[in-house]
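Slide 14.
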Amino acid sequence: MEIPERWARAIRSAGFRSVSALANEARLSTNQVLALLSGEEALSGHPRRSLASALRLTGEELDELAGAVEEEPDPFIVPKGSEGLSPRQRAVVTELILTFIESNRALSERDRATPPAPPASR
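Slide 15: predicted structure.
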């Protein structure tokens, strides 16, 4: 798998000679790091913090590098046919959506509040 140039520059700038070395430092598998760099896996939670720490980047810098700069997301539109849901079904779907929103907010706040671990020696 070819690594996007912006990632290759960041990896070199942090002093790594390979993705394997970066993965080792971040305590992630090489396959997981490749999936994160390619966008196949979401850059969030523990992997996000570990990768940011290994690359000596803030969470915001990592997001910028990943291209996750604040963009207006597409609005959520319920699927066609949802008008046929009962009031109880609608309430369950609404509660599920609110749970996802709260979970994303909590993860985002935790990522901002958790300082990156100091890099281990190579």
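Speaker note: The chain has a mean pLDDT of 84.
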